[in-house]
Write a structure and sequence with these properties.
By secondary structure, the protein is an alpha+beta fold. Among the domains are: 260 residues, Immunoglobulin-like, CATH 2.60.40; 80 residues, Sandwich (Immunoglobulin-like), CATH 2.60.40; 151 residues, Immunoglobulin-like, CATH 2.60.40. 18% of the residues lie in helices and 28% in strands. The strands form 10 sheets. It has an 11-stranded mixed β-sheet with strand order 49-48-52-46-45-44-42-43-47-51-50. Strands 6, 7, 8, 9, 10, 11, 14, 16, 19 and 20 form a 10-stranded antiparallel β-sheet that branches. It binds 2-acetamido-2-deoxy-beta-D-glucopyranose. The site of 2-acetamido-2-deoxy-beta-D-glucopyranose (NAG) has 8 residues, from helix 14.
Length: 916
């Protein structure tokens, strides 16, 4: 949760008084304290680089160019200063090129450590071919990518598959501030900068960089999360608040607004540009504070990226398609972790479940009301005085039996563990880390002391591998007292949040291992803390099962590139407002496009009290979030799903059951994320990249390739406009009814009730489901499956099913099954899915699970109906008109159902459908 009170208050008011103030405040008025955060104009490096006419200051020295297979190097001259830069351009077999620019000779500028990416990618190069060289330019090709490097001034134009894709420095906004000696004539802000009562000493002086990236012919760019704004990024030269550049600086933003360019808790400096025929990705791997301006003019999108320090390290993803760009990103930064199956169930959280009796009652409430859930969460109040990894012994006297009790019903517990450590010599974590010198230092090189939940706190220096290793060891069962193998972790406040720091974070002149300034590494703090915690759970799992281990589950709030390999994030402290429900969709989609698919927003909204309608609509949408958790602020009224009357309870139950019924499909989507970086939720254009009219749609989305979801984001709505992409077939997922097909994308007016939101199956796809209502994922493990076969215009459909033990790493040794289903020429065939390239072993798992129903949508009318002949057998079974789902409303009979074919999920089989 966010800084609950303004930091100024916290400094002045004793904590006891403060708490009682908070508990007694009745009306909660949302207030984003804009003045607590810096704007570009209040930030020296941003204001001096933003829109400053640079002139043609940078030139390549032609004689310096050297080309060696996949690497071109050249000297770049900064003319006004007579200084040199080293430019390196490399081509990689994995679908990207890389541009690096650093000072020459090197002055030891900060570079993002290699463990933020995966290992081995640097060796997979793909040679350049030199096409032409003149006194003013050199042209190279690699695969289908062409690069034209112009010398005076320096520009680089990239063409992909014959289409202009990217221009670097075509507007001459490139800039590079060389390290320098202090001069008397230096303007204010160069060497010291004060803001909000804090002074940043800036010992290295100005060292900012500016990148000028133009996407020719593109109208839309996406990505650079995290912020609450539209999917297609708006220009930043517009009316307030869109006159400010997008900011990438991980911050604990109290009560953020739902429509604002401001940067929130995490940053991924990855942008996608998309037009008909081409998708391009760019990643500037830099962990310092960054601002990104977007302008849209003359049929192109221009962007200027300004970073406070570091080097230019730009990756350009040239695969050409949306899926290809994200697959290439995954080959560089790693694919998303395969989650435990339980973590894809529903999570019940609140600040705070008060004590063991409360935990028992909430857990029992789910069973009493027949609502499935998998995980119960404990926020900061479960600890002994905010000393993480300890328990409040009066509220939680027997934490291990409590967890074992939950586990006896197949459920898990999550506790919160934050990176600030209470400065209490009697607290073992504090004392050990202090003795070992594991804390971040202030500018005087003594342990930094900042204010957070426990009061005076130290912060683990997780940028150091040794500190991460030590931190990981704290999670073994013998170290974390009161923990059991059923306990998983939540990392909050890891931006890091420092209540009395500048902008509620750490001073930039704080020092990390190796004398690195916090300025350089700020945006990495969160991912490193998350990584170290997940390594802790991995270690615990290895101790229990040295061969297969236990996949970690750690939720984080702060993130960066690389977080996708560690675990999920959530979108932080949202509010119980319709606008926050609405903006959660573009937020989740943007994160997926930036290679971080396992995300969700707090269902119900963290601040404030949702009414039954808002809460119901939120569950109906949340059932499709990759990470599905209800959470609420300390001051809010209780809102467990059964507290809003029997009708709301029934609707929320149905929404959560929908989620559980889709888990076979969702888990299969996570496998695609795990092998090839594909997002779970996708903007419509991701699947229909040629449909220009969809490029800005962000009020609806696709869950994987096969389902379209239209959330209802306003109260009292009786009908909604649903945009259905043209040229595809769409079937109402509640009734199975075919929407009249249209060649062009159409907006359909659809009646809605409070019972459900509009969801559609996409023709041409097969979706595996599990229909039997159960109380948790564990209870579903042996359940049979249903296949929904939604036919396209040609009467065909395809789909996949991935299954494994749902918890260990055995799948990496082949302990999984992955089936491919194809329906063509009236024959449904199950075969082994081909193994993706890249060292994934063949699946060898067989499971005693069968397919109990096959539901066909869109079979052509047949006067006397159809029968099915199951492979080998001579018996034909009639298809029956019947409800789409076992739990579907009566009357929903547009589907033809094959009942009880008992097809073994692990084996090859065929089913032929014949007209009677
Ligand atoms: C999939 O997820 C696992 C577990 O997080 C991870 O170790 C692995 O690198 C990921 N990718 C593949 C291809 O298995």
């Amino acid at each position: 949760m966010a800084a609950i009170a303004a930091p100024r208050l916290l400094r002045a008011v004793p904590i006891v008084v403060l708490c009682s103030l908070l508990l007694h405040s009745t009306q909660h008025v949302l207030a984003f304290k804009e003045h607590e955060f810096k704007k570009c104009a209040q930030t020296s490096f941003c204001s001096r680089n933003r829109n400053v006419p640079q002139g043609a200051n940078f030139e390549i020295i032609p004689a310096s160019i050297s080309l060696n297979t996949a690497t071109l190097t050249a000297t770049l001259l900064n003319k006004p200063y007579g200084k040199h830069l080293q430019l390196t351009l490399t081509s990689h077999a994995d679908g990207f090129v890389r541009l690096m620019v650093d000072e020459s000779p090197s002055v030891g500028r900060y570079q993002v450590p290699s463990d933020i990416l995966i290992s081995g990618w640097e060796n997979k190069k793909q040679g350049f071919t030199e096409n032409s060289r003149t006194a003013s330019s050199i042209t190279l090709t690699t695969g289908e990518t062409k690069l034209e490097l112009n010398f005076q001034p320096f520009t680089l134009a990239i063409t992909v598959k014959g289409q202009p894709a990217l221009q670097i420095n075509s507007r001459n906004l490139f800039n590079f501030e060389h390290r320098r000696q202090k001069q008397d004539s230096d303007p204010a802000g160069y060497w010291e900068e004060s803001w909000g009562g804090h002074t940043d000493s800036k010992p290295k002086g100005p060292e900012a960089l500016s990148l000028d990236l133009v996407f020719p012919g593109f109208q839309h760019v996406y990505g650079i999360p995290e912020r609450a704004t539209s999917l297609s990024l708006r220009a930043t030269n517009g009316a307030a608040p869109y006159g400010e550049p997008y900011r990438l600086y991980n911050l604990d933003v109290f009560e953020y607004l739902d429509d604002h360019p401001f940067g929130l808790y995490g940053s991924i400096p990855m942008m996608l540009a998309h037009k008909k025929g081409l998708t391009l990705g760019v990643l500037w791997l830099n962990s310092a504070e960054m601002f990104v301006d977007v302008v849209k003019e003359r049929g192109q999108v221009g962007s200027q990226w300004v970073a406070e320090s570091g080097i230019v390290d730009l990756f350009v993803f040239t695969a050409g398609s949306p899926a290809g760009v994200l697959a290439a990103y995954a080959r560089l930064a790693g694919p998303s972790a395969m989650p435990q199956l339980f973590s894809l169930g529903y999570h019940q959280c609140r600040w705070n479940y008060k004590d063991e009796a409360d935990v028992k009652a909430v857990d029992a409430g789910f069973d009493t009301h027949d609502i499935p859930y998998d995980v119960l969460w404990l926020d900061i109040e479960h600890t002994n005085g905010k000393r993480y990894l300890t328990w409040d012994s009066s509220l939680f006297p027997s934490p291990a039996p409590m967890q074992l009790d939950l586990a006896s019903r197949g459920r898990r517990m999550v506790t919160i563990v934050d990176p600030h450590v209470k400065r209490d010599p009697g607290y073992y974590v504090f004392a050990e880390a202090e003795a070992a010198g594991h804390y971040v230092k202030n500018k005087y090189n003594t342990d930094f002391d900042g204010w957070c939940w426990p009061g005076s706190s130290s912060y683990l220096d997780v940028t150091s591998p040794a500190v991460r290793q030590w931190w990981a060891q704290q999670f073994t069962l013998d170290r974390y007292s009161g923990s059991t193998p059923h306990l998983y972790i939540w990392n909050d406040m890891n931006e890091p949040s420092v209540f009395n720091g500048p902008e509620i974070t750490m001073p930039k002149d704080n020092l990390h291992a190796g004398g690195v300034e916090h300025r350089d590494t700020h945006n990495l703090y969160g991912v490193y803390y998350h990584m170290a915690t997940a390594e802790g759970l991995q270690l615990r799992g290895q101790q229990a099962d040295p061969q297969d281990g236990d996949r970690p589950f750690v939720l984080s709030r702060a993130f960066f590139t690389g977080t996708q390999r560690v675990g999920p994030i959530w979108t932080g402290d949202n509010a119980a407002q319709w606008s926050h429900l609405r903006v959660s969709v573009p937020m989740v989609l943007s994160l997926g496009l930036a290679g971080l698919p396992n995300v969700g927003a707090d269902v119900g909204g963290f601040f404030g009290n949702p009414d039954a309608e808002l809460l119901t609509r939120w569950y109906q949408l949340g059932a499709y979030y990759p990470f599905f958790r209800g959470h609420a602020h300390l001051e809010t009224q209780r809102r467990e799903p059964w507290l809003f009357g029997p009708e709301a309870t029934a609707r929320i139950r149905a929404a959560i059951r929908t989620r559980y019924s889709l888990l076979p499909y969702i888990y299969t989507l996570f496998r695609a994320a795990n092998t090839s970086g594909q997002p779970i939720l996708r903007p419509l254009w991701f699947e229909f990249p040629e449909h220009e009219e969809l490029f800005a749609v962000d009020e609806e989305f696709l869950a994987g390739p096969a389902m379209l979801v239209k959330p209802v984001v306003a109260p009292g709505v009786g009908q909604v406009e649903v945009t259905l992409p043209g040229g595809a077939r769409w079937y109402d997922a509640a009734t199975g009814a075919l929407v009249p097909p249209a060649a062009k994308t159409k907006s359909h007016r659809v009646q809605v009730t409070l019972d459900a939101i509009p969801v559609y199956y996409r023709g041409g796809h097969i979706v595996p489901r599990r229909e039997r209502p159960r109380r948790s994922t564990a209870a579903q493990a042996a359940d049979p499956l249903t296949l929904v076969v939604a036919l396209d215009e040609q009467g065909g459909a395809e789909g996949e099913l991935y299954m494994d033990d749902g918890r260990s790493f055995a799948f990496q040794r082949g302990g999984y099954l992955h089936r491919r289903f194809v329906f063509r020429s009236m024959k449904l065939v199950s075969s082994a899915q081909q193994v993706p390239a890249g060292g994934v072993p063949e699946g060898t798992l067989t499971l005693p699970v069968s397919i109990e129903r096959v539901v066909f949508l869109g079979l052509p009318p047949s006067r006397r109906g159809y029968k099915a002949v199951v492979g080998g057998s001579r018996q034909a079974v009639p298809l029956e008109a019947g409800p789409l789902s076992l739990v579907a409303a009566p009357g929903a009979e547009a589907a033809l159902v094959l009942r009880k074919p008992d097809l073994p999920v692990s084996h090859d089989w065929e089913v032929e459908i014949v007209a009677v």
